[in-house]
Amino acid sequence: MITLMKMHNSVFDWLDRKAGFILPTLARFTFAAVLVMYFWRSAWTKLGDGPFGLFSLSDGAYAQIFPRAMEAVGYDSSQLGFFHWMVALAGTWAEFILPALIVVGLFSRLAAIGLIGFVFVQSATDIVGHGATDEKTLGGWFNGIPDSVILDQRLLWITVLAIIVVKGAGPLSADRLTGRLS
């Protein structure tokens, strides 16, 4: 039994020492493999037409972000104000910029904090604005059903992002490279 405990401690002590490399690298890889295209595809649906589409967003952008306000104005985004435009623009840009920063590993902790906030706002919009309160979509923790879109999946997203907030981007990152250069 003592030999088994020594072997166990030896393996997991080594793993603890390597956690600074393994966890943030795995978290960024997981984010890139699972979520980066989700955010970028979502952002693409919000862009307007032409080269200035980054600044003149589609009606769909406003419908996704402000569903009740869009319904109130008959889905005519020109009736919404400057505040709506700024929030929609910032949200759209965040969906492009923050995932890119995490994948590259530049300002990773700030980008991960930003995306955690984004996921909270996205979830609140889905629940309150879009009325996603059915059990399949909203889900529930500790219910033995792990595939709800909001509570289950987004908790996993936040957990991956929280690893980056706590541990940083890891050794294979622009953060590490710029830290060594300065």
UniProtKB/TrEMBL annotation:
Membrane-spanning parts: 21-40, 155-174
Localization terms from the record: Membrane
Pfam families for the chain: DoxX
Keyword terms, alphabetized: Membrane, Transmembrane, Transmembrane helix
Topology in the lipid bilayer: Multi-pass membrane protein
Protein name: DoxX family protein
